[in-house]
Amino acid sequence: MSQPIPRVVILKTGSTYPSIKEQFGDFDEWFVRGLSPRLDITVLDTEAGELPTDPTDWDGIVVTGSPAMVSDREPWSENAAKWLARAVDKAVPLLGVCYGHQLLAHALGGEVGYHPFGRESGTRDVEMLASAQDDPLFRDFPGSFRAQLTHKQSVLRLPQGAVLLGRNEFEPHQAFRMGTCAWGVQFHPEFSEAIMRAYLGVQAPDLEREGFDSSAMIDSVTGAPEASALLERFSILVTKNKTG
Protein backbone atom coordinates (compact mmCIF):
# COMPACT_ATOMS: atom_id res chain seq x y z
CA MET A 1 0.00 0.00 0.00
CA SER A 2 1.46 3.32 -1.08
CA GLN A 3 2.10 6.08 1.45
CA PRO A 4 -0.01 9.28 1.20
CA ILE A 5 1.80 12.13 -0.51
CA PRO A 6 3.06 14.78 1.96
CA ARG A 7 1.13 18.06 1.76
CA VAL A 8 3.23 21.22 1.75
CA VAL A 9 1.95 24.81 1.74
CA ILE A 10 4.01 27.66 0.31
CA LEU A 11 3.14 31.00 1.93
CA LYS A 12 3.90 33.51 -0.82
CA THR A 13 4.75 36.83 0.82
CA GLY A 14 5.27 38.97 -2.28
CA SER A 15 6.38 39.00 -5.91
CA THR A 16 9.66 39.58 -7.68
CA TYR A 17 10.48 42.45 -10.03
CA PRO A 18 8.17 42.45 -13.11
CA SER A 19 11.04 41.98 -15.58
CA ILE A 20 12.38 38.99 -13.61
CA LYS A 21 8.90 37.50 -13.22
CA GLU A 22 8.40 37.71 -16.99
CA GLN A 23 11.63 35.82 -17.64
CA PHE A 24 11.81 33.33 -14.75
CA GLY A 25 8.37 33.20 -13.12
CA ASP A 26 7.62 34.23 -9.55
CA PHE A 27 8.91 33.26 -6.09
CA ASP A 28 6.54 30.35 -5.59
CA GLU A 29 7.50 28.79 -8.94
CA TRP A 30 11.19 28.82 -7.98
CA PHE A 31 10.41 26.96 -4.77
CA VAL A 32 8.23 24.42 -6.58
CA ARG A 33 11.15 23.74 -8.96
CA GLY A 34 13.53 23.16 -6.05
CA LEU A 35 11.26 21.07 -3.83
CA SER A 36 10.64 17.40 -4.52
CA PRO A 37 8.06 16.59 -7.23
CA ARG A 38 6.83 13.92 -4.83
CA LEU A 39 5.11 16.55 -2.67
CA ASP A 40 1.53 17.80 -2.94
CA ILE A 41 2.20 21.56 -3.00
CA THR A 42 -0.35 24.34 -2.46
CA VAL A 43 0.53 28.03 -2.87
CA LEU A 44 -1.31 30.68 -0.85
CA ASP A 45 -0.96 34.42 -1.51
CA THR A 46 -0.28 35.45 2.06
CA GLU A 47 0.37 39.07 1.10
CA ALA A 48 -3.23 39.13 -0.14
CA GLY A 49 -4.40 37.76 3.20
CA GLU A 50 -4.55 34.05 2.38
CA LEU A 51 -3.59 31.82 5.31
CA PRO A 52 -4.39 28.19 6.09
CA THR A 53 -6.52 27.39 9.11
CA ASP A 54 -4.85 24.72 11.25
CA PRO A 55 -1.07 24.34 10.73
CA THR A 56 -1.39 20.61 11.47
CA ASP A 57 -3.35 20.19 8.23
CA TRP A 58 0.06 20.36 6.53
CA ASP A 59 3.12 18.13 6.56
CA GLY A 60 5.45 21.02 5.72
CA ILE A 61 5.43 24.81 5.41
CA VAL A 62 7.65 27.07 3.27
CA VAL A 63 7.66 30.88 3.57
CA THR A 64 9.06 32.85 0.64
CA GLY A 65 11.01 36.06 0.37
CA SER A 66 9.34 39.41 -0.26
CA PRO A 67 10.10 43.00 -1.25
CA ALA A 68 8.12 43.98 1.87
CA MET A 69 9.82 44.76 5.18
CA VAL A 70 8.98 42.80 8.34
CA SER A 71 9.54 45.92 10.46
CA ASP A 72 6.64 47.68 8.69
CA ARG A 73 4.36 45.22 10.50
CA GLU A 74 1.70 45.18 7.81
CA PRO A 75 -1.52 43.48 9.02
CA TRP A 76 -1.14 40.54 6.60
CA SER A 77 2.44 40.00 7.79
CA GLU A 78 1.54 40.18 11.48
CA ASN A 79 -1.28 37.68 10.92
CA ALA A 80 1.15 35.36 9.16
CA ALA A 81 3.61 35.73 12.05
CA LYS A 82 0.96 34.61 14.54
CA TRP A 83 0.15 31.62 12.34
CA LEU A 84 3.84 30.68 12.12
CA ALA A 85 4.14 30.77 15.90
CA ARG A 86 1.27 28.27 16.07
CA ALA A 87 2.97 26.07 13.47
CA VAL A 88 6.20 26.02 15.50
CA ASP A 89 4.21 25.18 18.64
CA LYS A 90 2.64 22.25 16.78
CA ALA A 91 6.05 21.07 15.48
CA VAL A 92 5.10 21.21 11.79
CA PRO A 93 8.30 21.22 9.66
CA LEU A 94 8.83 24.79 8.49
CA LEU A 95 11.39 26.58 6.32
CA GLY A 96 11.43 30.38 6.13
CA VAL A 97 13.63 32.04 3.50
CA CYS A 98 14.82 35.69 3.59
CA TYR A 99 11.58 37.51 4.51
CA GLY A 100 10.30 34.16 5.78
CA HIS A 101 13.44 33.77 7.92
CA GLN A 102 12.96 37.23 9.37
CA LEU A 103 9.22 36.76 9.87
CA LEU A 104 9.82 33.51 11.74
CA ALA A 105 12.30 35.23 14.07
CA HIS A 106 9.88 38.13 14.62
CA ALA A 107 6.98 35.75 15.26
CA LEU A 108 8.91 34.06 18.07
CA GLY A 109 10.15 37.18 19.83
CA GLY A 110 13.32 38.06 17.90
CA GLU A 111 14.16 41.49 16.50
CA VAL A 112 14.14 42.35 12.79
CA GLY A 113 15.26 45.60 11.18
CA TYR A 114 17.58 47.22 8.66
CA HIS A 115 21.12 45.89 8.76
CA PRO A 116 23.39 48.61 10.17
CA PHE A 117 25.81 48.27 7.24
CA GLY A 118 23.20 48.24 4.49
CA ARG A 119 22.56 45.73 1.75
CA GLU A 120 23.98 42.25 1.17
CA SER A 121 23.57 41.08 -2.42
CA GLY A 122 25.22 38.61 -4.77
CA THR A 123 26.95 35.26 -4.28
CA ARG A 124 28.53 35.04 -0.83
CA ASP A 125 30.14 32.44 1.41
CA VAL A 126 28.19 31.08 4.37
CA GLU A 127 29.88 29.30 7.28
CA MET A 128 28.11 26.54 9.17
CA LEU A 129 28.73 26.29 12.91
CA ALA A 130 29.38 23.21 15.03
CA SER A 131 25.71 23.32 16.08
CA ALA A 132 24.76 22.33 12.52
CA GLN A 133 26.57 18.99 12.73
CA ASP A 134 23.68 17.27 14.50
CA ASP A 135 20.91 19.43 13.08
CA PRO A 136 18.17 17.39 11.34
CA LEU A 137 18.24 19.59 8.21
CA PHE A 138 21.89 20.71 8.02
CA ARG A 139 23.62 17.52 9.19
CA ASP A 140 26.57 16.69 6.88
CA PHE A 141 26.28 20.09 5.19
CA PRO A 142 29.62 21.55 4.00
CA GLY A 143 31.37 23.69 6.60
CA SER A 144 31.39 26.56 4.10
CA PHE A 145 29.38 26.98 0.92
CA ARG A 146 28.32 29.57 -1.65
CA ALA A 147 24.82 31.04 -1.50
CA GLN A 148 22.78 33.68 -3.31
CA LEU A 149 21.74 36.64 -1.17
CA THR A 150 19.81 39.88 -1.49
CA HIS A 151 18.44 41.70 1.55
CA LYS A 152 18.44 45.02 3.39
CA GLN A 153 16.77 43.81 6.58
CA SER A 154 18.15 41.14 8.89
CA VAL A 155 17.42 39.25 12.06
CA LEU A 156 19.14 41.64 14.49
CA ARG A 157 18.43 39.46 17.52
CA LEU A 158 17.44 35.79 17.49
CA PRO A 159 14.43 34.61 19.51
CA GLN A 160 15.18 33.18 22.93
CA GLY A 161 16.02 29.49 22.62
CA ALA A 162 17.01 29.69 18.95
CA VAL A 163 19.96 27.59 17.79
CA LEU A 164 22.29 29.56 15.52
CA LEU A 165 23.46 27.31 12.67
CA GLY A 166 25.16 29.55 10.10
CA ARG A 167 26.70 33.01 9.60
CA ASN A 168 29.14 35.00 7.50
CA GLU A 169 31.25 38.13 7.95
CA PHE A 170 28.38 40.46 7.05
CA GLU A 171 25.39 38.63 8.48
CA PRO A 172 25.71 36.94 11.90
CA HIS A 173 22.38 35.12 11.54
CA GLN A 174 22.38 33.30 8.19
CA ALA A 175 20.57 30.21 9.51
CA PHE A 176 18.85 29.21 12.73
CA ARG A 177 16.46 26.61 14.12
CA MET A 178 13.63 26.98 16.58
CA GLY A 179 12.31 23.93 18.39
CA THR A 180 12.75 20.62 16.63
CA CYS A 181 11.84 21.43 13.03
CA ALA A 182 11.49 25.15 12.21
CA TRP A 183 14.32 26.79 10.26
CA GLY A 184 15.07 30.24 8.96
CA VAL A 185 17.73 30.97 6.33
CA GLN A 186 18.67 34.46 5.16
CA PHE A 187 20.13 33.14 1.88
CA HIS A 188 18.05 32.06 -1.13
CA PRO A 189 18.20 28.33 -1.92
CA GLU A 190 15.54 28.89 -4.60
CA PHE A 191 17.70 31.32 -6.63
CA SER A 192 19.49 30.06 -9.71
CA GLU A 193 22.70 31.66 -10.93
CA ALA A 194 20.71 33.35 -13.72
CA ILE A 195 18.13 34.75 -11.29
CA MET A 196 20.88 36.16 -9.07
CA ARG A 197 22.47 37.91 -12.05
CA ALA A 198 19.09 39.28 -13.08
CA TYR A 199 18.54 40.67 -9.58
CA LEU A 200 21.86 42.46 -9.61
CA GLY A 201 21.06 43.85 -13.05
CA VAL A 202 17.79 45.35 -11.81
CA GLN A 203 19.47 46.61 -8.62
CA ALA A 204 22.50 48.07 -10.46
CA PRO A 205 21.50 51.77 -10.22
CA ASP A 206 20.82 51.44 -6.47
CA LEU A 207 23.99 49.40 -5.96
CA GLU A 208 26.08 52.07 -7.67
CA ARG A 209 24.50 54.80 -5.53
CA GLU A 210 25.34 52.74 -2.44
CA GLY A 211 29.00 52.48 -3.43
CA PHE A 212 29.03 48.97 -4.92
CA ASP A 213 30.55 47.95 -8.25
CA SER A 214 27.51 46.29 -9.81
CA SER A 215 29.41 44.95 -12.84
CA ALA A 216 31.97 43.25 -10.60
CA MET A 217 29.16 41.81 -8.48
CA ILE A 218 27.43 40.39 -11.56
CA ASP A 219 30.72 38.95 -12.82
CA SER A 220 31.38 37.28 -9.44
CA VAL A 221 28.07 35.38 -9.37
CA THR A 222 28.62 31.63 -9.31
CA GLY A 223 26.42 28.59 -8.90
CA ALA A 224 25.42 27.63 -5.36
CA PRO A 225 24.52 23.93 -5.57
CA GLU A 226 24.93 23.22 -1.84
CA ALA A 227 22.55 26.04 -0.91
CA SER A 228 20.06 24.92 -3.57
CA ALA A 229 20.17 21.36 -2.19
CA LEU A 230 18.52 22.63 0.98
CA LEU A 231 15.08 22.46 -0.68
CA GLU A 232 15.49 18.79 -1.56
CA ARG A 233 16.79 18.15 1.97
CA PHE A 234 13.70 19.82 3.41
CA SER A 235 11.51 17.72 1.09
CA ILE A 236 13.16 14.54 2.39
CA LEU A 237 12.76 15.66 6.00
CA VAL A 238 9.06 16.40 5.47
CA THR A 239 8.52 13.01 3.84
CA LYS A 240 10.37 11.11 6.58
CA ASN A 241 8.51 13.04 9.25
CA LYS A 242 5.17 12.06 7.72
CA THR A 243 6.00 8.39 7.21
CA GLY A 244 7.72 8.08 10.61
UniProtKB/TrEMBL annotation:
Pfam families: GATase (PF00117). PANTHER family: GLUTAMINE AMIDOTRANSFERASE YLR126C-RELATED (PTHR42695). Residues 45-193 form the Glutamine amidotransferase domain. PROSITE patterns: GATASE_TYPE_1 (PS51273). This is Glutamine amidotransferase domain-containing protein. SUPFAM superfamilies: Class I glutamine amidotransferase-like. GO terms for cellular component: cytosol. It comes from marine sediment metagenome. CDD domains: GATase1_1.
